[in-house]
């Protein structure tokens, strides 16, 4: 039966490490450091892009909510002005009616 690849890689890695000693191990770490740094930088950039995407979505939602609130306030002002106009018109008509009757 053939050993699984990951187990074989792990075993090979352990054997290499034991045979190579500390100097070889440090040299391998130094060679792999730029790759690790690049991978970490790429992951950081992805997280940053995702954060900015969420921030843009949040800002857009806030802008839409503010726009809707302004629209509702403008509608309320119009309704109040119409009601006030109707009340003033009624007062004028009642005043004219009373002056004509009296």
Number of helices: 1
Largest sheet: none
Radius of gyration: 39 Å
Structural category is mainly alpha
Write down the secondary-structure element order: H
Please mark out the parts with pLDDT under 50 across 5 or more consecutive residues, or reply none: none
Strand coverage percent: under 5%
Principal-axes shape call:
rod-shaped
Number of strands: 0
Helix content: over 70%
Q: CA-to-CA gap between the ends?
A: 118 Å
Mean pLDDT: 88
Describe this structure in words.
The chain is mostly helical. The chain has 1 helix and no strands. The longest helix has 97 residues, at 5-101. It starts with a helix and ends with a helix.
Question: Briefly, what is this?
Answer:
With 102 residues, the protein is mainly α. The protein has 1 helix and no strands.
Question: Key features?
Answer:
0% strand, single chain, 102 residues, mainly alpha
Strand-helix topology:
Layout: H1 5-101
């Amino acid at each position: 039966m053939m050993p699984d690849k990951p187990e074989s890689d792990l075993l090979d890695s352990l054997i290499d490490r034991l045979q190579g000693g500390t100097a070889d191990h440090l040299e391998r770490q130094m060679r792999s450091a730029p790759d690790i740094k690049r991978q970490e930088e790429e992951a950081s950039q992805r997280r940053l892009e995702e954060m900015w995407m969420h921030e843009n979505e949040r800002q857009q939602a806030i802008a839409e909510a503010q726009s809707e609130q302004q629209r509702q306030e403008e509608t309320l002002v119009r309704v109040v002005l119409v009601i006030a106009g109707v009340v003033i018109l009624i007062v004028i008509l009642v005043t004219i009616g009373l002056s004509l009757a009296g």
